[in-house]
Amino acid sequence: MFKIPWHKLPTPLALLQLVQFRNTLREKNLRDTSHLLDKEALPKPQPSSDGRHFVARMADGSFNDLSQPEMGMAGTRFGRNSPLAESNVDEKNLLKPNPRLVSSVLLKRDRFIPATILNLHAASWIQFQTHDWFTHGDNQPGEHISIPPAQTQPEQPDAPPLKVEKTLKDPSRTDDNKRPATFINKVTHWWDASQLYGSDEETLERLRTHQSGKMLIGEDGFLPLDEAQGIDLVGFPGSAGGWWIGLSMLHTLFIKEHNTICARLQQRYPSWDDSQLFDKARLITAALLAKIHTVEWTPAILPNPTTQIAMNANWWGLLGRGVKKVVGHIGEDELLSGIVGSATDHHAAPYYLTEEFVSVYRMHPLIPDEINFYAHRSGEHLVTKAFPDVFGKRARSAMQSLPVEDSLYSFGIQYPGAITLHNYPNFLRALMKDGATDAFDLAAVDILRDRERGVPRYNRFREIVGKERVSSFEELTGNPQWAKELREVYNNDIDSVDLMIGLFAEELPEGFGFSDTAFRVFILMASRRLKSDRFFTEDYRAEIYTQFGLDWIEENSFLTVLRRHYPALSPALYGLTNGFQPWRKIA
């Protein structure tokens, strides 16, 4: 029977199809790894003596679920969207085909392919968000996987083996049975802005002023410098390896926003102490970030009429923002008035982010190899910087070399790269990290990490998320040259295509910035990040946030935050409804 893809259906039918997809995925694709074996080795959080854990986000993410306080906290395992029996490492095929061959033949950027629906802030934003959600932490010291040079790498004829440290072991697993493979998330799984605040009390203490609830920022408008790493002092651990000017701008912007919220709260509640002001400002800031991602970033990268409605419905419901603003949340269900303010529900498994969720967020093609900087008042071209010149320890000097408004404006009028084959940044394929002596092929490592962590390959992954397998390379991609290259690299075995490669090769629905297969995980996990979090559901209320806080979240957006802290950008933002779409160029 011929089936019409959901994205080609009339919008009402397409929305119904998406709801059905989500319900099925909630039932079949949430797998709990937290119960496996040595659960006693997992964290055991203790409640606060003053009851603060009932009304505020804890630094380590504990007590978000009051009945299972360890759920989603830092130091707990990633879950799975795939069957646990299949989430094991295929050791004999770990290097088949050679990840460096995959990188050099299928990912190498010969020319920059732009994503013209977006601006470069969209690339910064998704890294900013993933730093809130997940990291496997430092790698396993002394244990390597050696990737030999690919035979078809003419640019590196004498390249030595690439030694990649293994992913850090799960210390709560002491068994020899590695089915399924489990790993630890070093940050909180919750959407709690931990990239700003940290995922442990010690980090948070270093970032706070301990006065009026505010976070540290210098009088010059820059964040404090982490002298050990040579980058901004921020909450995300190990940031130096992926730090760049785009992240620096967003961290600075939202630390300023946090401090502004503190000042407004203090005006309304002058008797509140530093901790009360901080806790409320964190709740408000985290929710504002979640809202921006839900109703601005995602619709910008998926500007399809159905997805636009669906993402707005996640926040406000199918009845829309206007109805919810007037009458509030109708009932406990999420359909009419949105997930925000509905009843909390973990569905088939306790809440944890998943290894597959990590995999579909491999979006490095968004990054350009160079950035043009322009004056925000005149539009004059100022300088072009190669990406390494705004990366790592050089990011701070790049931030200080121009007015921040010029850098923000420059990102607003430039395109990121399209998420596709042959568009992986060249400098990331020959990455020289601060202090390193050998180049590092991050594209090859991306391929290796999915295999090492037991993530299914592309065709099996399609089945797992409710799509049919593709039967040929020509069905995977309509580009004949790509099909030929894929066939050669994967030795004519369509089932061995890696997940990331399949996602990049797949034909995109109209108005999509990434593949429909990846979108299936978004349908599930984007909703889950809200639905499982009591601070977005049953505790999204004035008694927890204050009415001022709820109003602030409702009335603000990426655009209003930019205008508030950098009002000189207003001419470039004139007429925009979404801050992640290309800005107005100043002539």
Give a brief description:
This protein is mainly alpha-helical. The chain is built from 23 helices and eight strands.
Explain what the structure shows.
- The protein is mainly alpha-helical.
- It has a single domain (6-573), classed as Myeloperoxidase, subunit C (Orthogonal Bundle).
- It is 39% helix and 5% strand.
- β5 (225-226) and β6 form a beta hairpin.
- α7 packs parallel to α21.
- The protein is globular, with a radius of gyration of 23 Å.
- The mean pLDDT is 93.
Defining traits:
single chain, 587 residues, mainly alpha, Myeloperoxidase, subunit C, two-stranded antiparallel ribbon, globular
CATH homology superfamily: Haem peroxidase domain superfamily, animal type
Largest sheet strand order: 1-4
Could you estimate the helical fraction of the residues in percent?
25-40%
The CATH class label is Mainly Alpha
- According to DSSP, the number of beta strands is 8
Oligomer: single chain
- The CATH topology is what? Myeloperoxidase, subunit C
Tally of helical segments: 23
**What fraction of the residues are assigned to beta strands by DSSP?**
under 5%
Parts with pLDDT < 50 across at least 5 consecutive residues: none
What is the approximate shape?
A: globular
Q: What's the CATH architecture name?
A: Orthogonal Bundle
State the end-to-end distance.
Answer: 55 Å
* Mean model confidence by pLDDT: 93
Rounded to an integer in angstroms, the radius of gyration calculated over CA atoms is 23 Å
* Overall SS class: mainly alpha
Number of domains: 1
Biggest sheet record: 2 strands, antiparallel
